Amino acid sequence: MNNYQITKWCAHFIRMHVCPGSLCIDATMGNGHDTLLLSRLAGAEGKVLAFDIQETALAHTQQLLEKEQAPHNYRLILDSHVNMEYYAAPESIDCIVFNFGYLPGGDHTLATRADSSITAISSGLNLLKKGGLMSLCIYSGGDTGFEERDAILSFIKKLDSRSYLAIQSEYVNRPNHPPIPVLIVKQGR
């Protein structure tokens, strides 16, 4: 792996997990890069549900998907990631991707928050199939980023180890509160 940005690091594991026919969720659509990756990996037989609360995010994502000629296997949803459970059945999802923080290039006052993010993670864990992967890119800083980071990491540490494998990584030699990548795999009982 020659690019060590958090999104590229997480994408490495997503590529190993998502295959044609997968059902995936981009819980925090942003500018659509994860939606595009999931769309390409899931292929024509798969499906991607992508969520964001900002119309700007949907517009940017739609433009990117059209420009990159992504398979038409996606649904862009103007709704909070807290409501994912209304769009997919329990234990039906192969992969869920989160990027916590704010829309790059967008309004920094519109950012994910600890309470809604933990609710969305919990809901997402119920949606994951056994063997399913959840990828979290946790950015801190700003007005609520540290609070959100700490709350998410505390929540993840309390997950039942018989049900979930949670792997947290960190950049130990980068300044200014580097992002934290986390992978969660739902295990079978």
Name the descriptors.
single chain; 189 residues; alpha/beta; 7-stranded mixed β-sheet; 5 helices; 24% strand
Describe the model.
With 189 residues, this protein is an alpha/beta fold. Helices cover 33% and strands 24% of the residues. The chain contains five helices and seven strands, in the order αβαβαββαβαββ. It has a seven-stranded mixed sheet, with helices on both faces. Strand 2 (47-52), helix 3 and strand 3 form a beta-alpha-beta unit. Helix 1 (6-17) runs parallel beside helix 2 and helix 4 (114-127) runs parallel beside helix 5. The longest helix is centred in the middle third of the chain and has 14 residues, at 114-127. The chain is globular, with a radius of gyration of 15 Å. The termini are far apart. The model has no long low-confidence stretch (mean pLDDT 88).
Helix content: 25-40%
- Estimated share of beta-strand residues: 15-25%
Give the biggest beta sheet.
7 strands, mixed
Report the average pLDDT across residues.
88
Number of strands: 7
- Number of helical stretches of at least 4 residues: 5
Strand order of the biggest β-sheet: 3-2-1-4-5-7-6
Order of helices and strands: HEHEHEEHEHEE
Structural class: alpha/beta
Spans of 5+ residues with little confidence (pLDDT < 50)?
A: none
User: Shape, please?
Assistant: globular
- Spatial extent as radius of gyration: 15 Å
End-to-end distance:
33 Å
How do you describe this structure in short?
This protein is an alpha/beta fold and 189 residues long. It has helices at residues 6-17, 33-42, 55-67, 114-127, 145-157, and strands spanning 23-26, 47-52, 74-78, 93-100, 128-138, 164-168, 180-186.
